[in-house]
Design goal:
By secondary structure, the chain is an all-alpha fold. Helices cover about 75% and strands about 0% of the residues.
């Protein structure tokens, strides 16, 4: 995976860069990214539930 670089610009420019990056990925790479997002989302959801039970 390539090194992440912070980029500054208008929201429209940043969105266009993200769209171009996504379009350049293969189907498998897109699927891997989706699975990572789902896993992180699930982990955050579970962490909130556990944290609320401790209070």
């Amino acid at each position: 995976m390539k090194k992440n670089v912070l980029s500054f610009g208008t929201p429209q420019e940043l969105e266009a860069k993200r769209i171009a990056e996504i379009r350049s990925l293969s189907y498998l790479e897109r699927l891997e990214r989706l699975m990572v997002l789902i896993e992180v989302s699930y982990t955050l959801k579970i962490a909130k539930v556990i944290q609320s039970k401790k209070r």
